[in-house]
Structures are given as structure tokens and as C-alpha cells.
Amino acid sequence: MDKTPKIQRFEGQGGREDLPRESWKVFQIMAEFVEGFERLTPIRPAVSVFGSARVPAEHPYYRLAEEICRLLSDAGFSVISGGGPGVMEAANKGAFAGKSPSIGLNIELPREQKANEYQDVALTFRHFFSRKVMFVKYASAYVVLPGGFGTLDELAEILTLVQTGKTRRIPIILVHAPYWTGLLDWFRTTLCAEGSIGSQDLDLLTVCDEPAQILEAIFDHYGSRCFEPSASEREILLDL
């Protein structure tokens, strides 16, 4: 008796009847990209900041993010966050109190995500992938505070894009060394040892503990060059 599992198809559950909705979805996605491009193009240079949505306002990570982003804002960087609570709110709050724009890229979620009130520019996305493009496309640096799956997702995204040459190389800064030590050790002892990444890929990451160190790392990366993408980098970003 053949016990090999077989796919059963049921009429009315997916298939061609869903095609019109799927096709029209393209226009909704297009609208998210067009609005994002139009609203965010003027805000450069910018720094994208990530971290946990779950930390309360009295948490040290919240206060650290607020201090970092006030410093970035006063130095002339627009600050882009996910627009929600926790570290995202702290990032927007610090930037909002500073001299440069505070940007929130909000996402519609069943729970957890609620837009914070510290946003000069607020965009709302239905799709994670279009939101991710906006984080990368306009960023001169990534600052990653402690966070969960969403934070790790954004970190892996920028590492992959830089590693593969699909975006320009920018500073990727991990904040608070004790939080990231285990992950970085695993990168070295497992990913590098297995050949899954090269040892040079670890050079894409910088670890900082103090807000002033973060600003210094960003300026050191660019040296005497402009924060704006070069002509060749703009071509790369067009195909992001």
C-alpha cells in the first residue's frame, strides 16, 4: 500500500479565483513605494535606528536610544525609526527634540505596533518589504540597539545587501556590547568556521557603547567624502 503523502486540491481554496485580487495588490504596493520615495528623498543624510518595541520609557535602552538620536539629530542627521513604541519611540523622541527631522516608518500589525507622537514625517506601510527598502535606501548608517526578531531581521537584511553589493557600504553599528557578544561569537565560531561567511564580513559591523562613539564611527567611516551617495552608488540604489 502506497503511504506517500499526496497533495489534495480543493475547489474554491486558492487558485485562479484569487488572481484579480493578487493583481490589483500591485497598485497598493506601488503606492507605498511612490509615497515613500516622494516623502523621504529630501531628508538625507539620515540614520536608520532599530531596537525592541517592548522596552518601557524607564528602561536603560530607551534612555540610551533617546540620547543617541538627540545627538544624531543635532549633528545634522535625520533619524528614521519604525515609528512604534519602545526603542523606536525613544529614537523619534530624541530626534524630535533635536535640529533634524524625526521620521517614522510605521507598519500595520495586529498587535504591538502603535505609532508614537514624535514624528515630523510619518508613513504607514502594509508590507514589510516596501518598508525595508525605505530604511535602507535613505540611510547613511544603521544603528542597532538591543531588540528581538524584527531587529535581527533588519540587521540581517542590511548585512546581506552590503555583503552582496546590492546597496552601498554604510556603517552598521551595534549598540551595547554585552547584548551582542553571544551573537558575534557565534558568527566567528560557527558561521566563519563553516565557511558560511568570510572573516572579512565581520568587518561590516562596529560595536559601540557610548552615544559619542556612534557619532564618531559614522564620521570616521565617511572621512572627507560626502554623505550623499556617489554617482555609482546612486545607480546601485536604483536597483535596490
Characterize the structure shown.
By secondary structure, this protein is α/β, with parallel strands linked by helices. The protein has one domain (44-238): 3-Layer(aba) Sandwich (Rossmann fold), CATH 3.40.50. Helix content is 46%, strand content 13%. It contains eight helices and seven strands; from the N terminus they run αβαβαββαβαβαβαα. The chain has helices at residues 19-40, 60-74, 87-96, 128-137, 149-163, 177-194, 211-222, 231-238; strands at residues 46-50, 78-81, 102-107, 121-125, 141-144, 172-175, 205-208. A seven-stranded parallel β-sheet has the order 4-3-2-1-5-6-7, sandwiched between helices. The longest helix is centred in the first third of the chain and has 22 residues, at 19-40. The protein is globular. The protein starts with 18 loop residues before the first helix and ends with a helix.
